[in-house]
Amino acid sequence: MADQDQLNYEPGVARVFNSREETRNYYNKIAKIYDVMAEHSEGPMRELGMTLLDVKPGEKILEIGFGTGHCVVELAKAAGPDGLVCGVDISDKMLEMAQEFVNAAGYQDRVDLKRGDGETLEYPDGMFDGLFTSFTLELFDTPDIPKFLAECKRVLKPGGRFAVVAVSKMGKDGVIMKAY
Question: What is the pLDDT of residues 47-58, one digit of tens each?
Answer without folding.
Answer: 888 899 999 999
